[in-house]
Amino acid sequence: MSPKIPIWKNIPFLRLLVPFAAGIICSWYFSLQWIIGLYLIAAALPFALLYLLLNEQRKFTFSWLPGCAVSLFMLGFAVLLTWLKQVPHQQQWVGHVYQPGDVVQLRLLEPLSEKQKTYKAQAEIISVQHNGKTKQVSGDIILYFQKDSVMPALQYGNIIAINKPLQEIKNAGNPGGFDYKRYALFNSITHQLFVKKTDYVVLNATKTSFFWSFIYRTKAYILSVLRTHIKGDQEISVAEALLIGYRDDLDRDLVQAYSNTGVVHVIAISGLHLGLIYWLLLLLFQPLNKYKQLKWLKPLLVLSFLWIFSLLTGAGASVLRAAIMFTFISGGDLLSKKGNIYNSMAASAFVLLCYNPFYLWDVGFQLSYAAVLSIVLFMKPIYHWLSFNNKLLDKAWQLNAVTLSAQILTLPLCMYHFHQAPNLFLITNFVAVPLSSIILFGEILLIVVSFIQPVAAFTGTVFSYLLKWMNEFIIWADHFTFAVTDGIQHHPLQTILLYAFIASTGIWLLQKNTKALKWSAGFLAAFFLLQSVFVYQTGKQKKLIVYNLSQHTAIDFMLGSQYLFKGDSVLLQDGFLRNFHLKPSRILFHSYHSPMIPASMQNNSYSINGKKIIHINQSYVYDSLQPRIKADVLIISKNPRLYITDLLKTVDCKLVVFDSSNPQWKINLWKKDCERLQLNYFCTSEQGAFVMNL
Q: pLDDT tens, 140-173?
């Protein structure tokens, strides 16, 4: 019996990927400097030299030396690369030289996209003019143009000059909220700015790339064809997202329905779409196989179209993963070598992380690799659970096996990142995946025949109905109360325990290993033990949270697993505002139930656990006859007409909180009064949400 080959021998790129990913994580979380990377690379050299100097017999004994050298080198390379890829560490970054009042020149990196209240575009900062001197700089910025009756006459490549203070991107600072600042930084964006017509001047110079101009023109043409021939706003928006990943027109409630039912991947360009395009391209260029001298042409054409499609869709991490993997597969076919799927996955991940190490935190990147690995590992065993003689039933079961297997490794990530688990994913995927595949091919056909008006009109009508049926089916499935398990909050350690449980259970089922079953039970017990600790802590919690929500008042009293909300009624109706700003905090603190406000708390004075909170949201009139009230926290919102000096004559408070419903100029005046009176204050618009244990 031949000795078993270790897994890292069959998957050599895994030996590079693991220390490389570890180096990226350590570099970011421990803020390691570039010099640490050089030290680690230098430390790898003695191991490599020592191994080279050994004789053949000793090389076998010390075969671990090359592995140590490679691991240290990859750790150091990852630390160095991660440090260099952070925009603030780059010598020409605009933040090093820019001062408010400087004139900056910007180049638009894309055409304007229309939002609800603005036009948005990403731009690069190319120069800063300070005291009459111009300095070349680098750095990307998000521009929001005021929405007037006429769209700004700006195109990709236009260079504009702005004399308005740049704003560094900040987070809202609400508990559990999305870390937009980090997300932007990982995409090399550090500033943002809202501009009006009078704030910028369009210069005569332009700077464009022929390739990107072609990409944007092609994208604009595809969008115009779809908007001309597809009927219905929701149908058009899904068609745009399905074909080229254009999501600006998508209805928020519709996206939530797709997410709740476990088919959001249908309207988020992913490896599924690229796989369908790859299969179609292989089919179209199949005739080239007849000519041996043109063997090289087929993979070249396939990959060219595949990469152009990837760039058209925005080149997200999951799309790039699929494109790189298909590139490796095509390269292997060209060289008549069959690749190892695990090694191809590790190689594509390594290449992507070399390009942008921060893809490691990209949810699309994580879900994409988790889904592919899950299908590779579990699809065949699940498919063999059932056997059908009928070919149609067999294909149906095969599709369900793929869907079910993909969920195994993606579910823990979905629960961790999105705090929910779709319960109807098998049913919805069974309908949505084949239907969306047909629609995708139909949209490609529509683009091809778009110059033949009658054919294009007929094709558009047919696929408009298919899109409508798919949307209606998803909305119907979403209306069931059991469609999704919501409000899941897992600690990162719990997610790791879930993956350990899945791995040990998989080994037990596939290899009949009883020892793995014991480990599986242990991991599951540890998971629920940790959950019990969090439930116990939740039962004892009493918190006051004043949210940072522009132009709105939102206050939560967290009492155990329940929350009491006081604030603007619109936040009870607007699903997006509630889900984006308030819901993450409630999930973070495991508070899911909102009972009726008790009669004792329906005024603007609250006493909880011996602490008194007063809320002033209307003009305040000083009354000398009123006794002075003692309060731990005084919350001021809705821009009331009051003076801090008069207020303190009737209220003896320890801390004043100004929420974001007050105008900033008024807050600045109140802050000066507080400083003069030596009164502690907290401003949510500047410091984020106010959180206090009661």
A: 999 999 887 567 788 999 999 998 999 999 999 9
CATH of 94-208, one of 3.40.50.10700, 1.10.10.60, 3.40.50.2000, 2.40.50.730: 2.40.50.730
Question: How much is the mean pLDDT over the chain?
Answer: 87
Euclidean distance between CA atoms 397 and 385, whole angstroms: 10
Could you give the C-alpha distances from 455 to 116, 229, 572, in angstroms and in order? 34, 10, 47
The CA-atom distances, in angstroms, between 682 and each of 40, 212, 633, 655, 666 are 44, 47, 10, 7, 14
The CB density around residue 684, as the number of other CB atoms within 10 Å, is 26
**pLDDT, tens digit, 9 for 90 and up, residues 291-341:** 777 777 878 888 888 888 888 887 777 777 778 877 877 776 666 666 678
Percent of the chain as helix, strand, coil, to the nearest 5: 55, 15, 25
Spatial distance between the Cα atoms of 100 and 167, rounded to a whole number of angstroms: 10
Residue 235's identity, in one-letter code, is E
Q: How many residues can be counted in the chain?
A: 694
Neighbours of 42 (CB within 10 A): 12
Residue environment code for 486-513, b if the CB has 16+ CB neighbours within 10 A, otherwise e:
eeebbeeebbbbbebbbbbbbbbeeeee
Give tens-digit pLDDT for 240-256: 988 888 888 888 889 88
User: In terms of DSSP bridges, do strands 690-693 and 680-683 run parallel, antiparallel, or are they unpaired?
Assistant: unpaired
Spatial distance between the Cα atoms of 648 and 680, rounded to a whole number of angstroms: 12
Determine the pLDDT at residue 337: 62
Q: Residues with Cβ < 8 Å from 97, sequence gap 6 or more?
A: 128, 130, 135, 137
DSSP codes joined into one string, 468-517: HHHHHHHHHHHTSTTSEEE-----HHHHHHHHHHHHHHHHHHHH--HHHH
Strand partners, 386: none
User: How many CB atoms are located within 10 Å of the residue 561 CB?
Assistant: 15
The β-bridge relationship of strands 605-608 and 611-616 is antiparallel
Q: Is 61 exposed, middle or buried (0-12, 13-18, 19+ CB in 10 A)?
A: exposed
Place of tokens 């020149």: 105
Which parts of 86-131 fold into alpha helices (H)? none
656 contacts 634 by C-beta, under 8 angstroms: yes
Distant-in-sequence, close-in-space partners of 509: CB < 8 Å, separation ≥ 6: 381
Tokens of 538: 């939740």
Taking each helix axis from N to C terminus, what angle separates 453-478 and 233-244, rounded to the nearest 10 degrees? 100
CA distance 106 to 192: 12
The token pair at 492 is 């990162």
Q: How many C-beta atoms surround the C-beta of residue 79 within 10 A?
A: 28
Contact 631, 611 (CB under 8 A): no
User: How distant, in Å, are the alpha carbons of 16, 330, 686 from that of 165?
Assistant: 44, 50, 17
**538 contacts 590 by C-beta, under 8 angstroms:** yes
Could you state, in order of their start, the residue ranges of all structural domains in the chain?
Answer: 7-85, 94-208, 214-486, 492-540, 543-693
Q: Residue 398: its pLDDT value, please?
A: 85
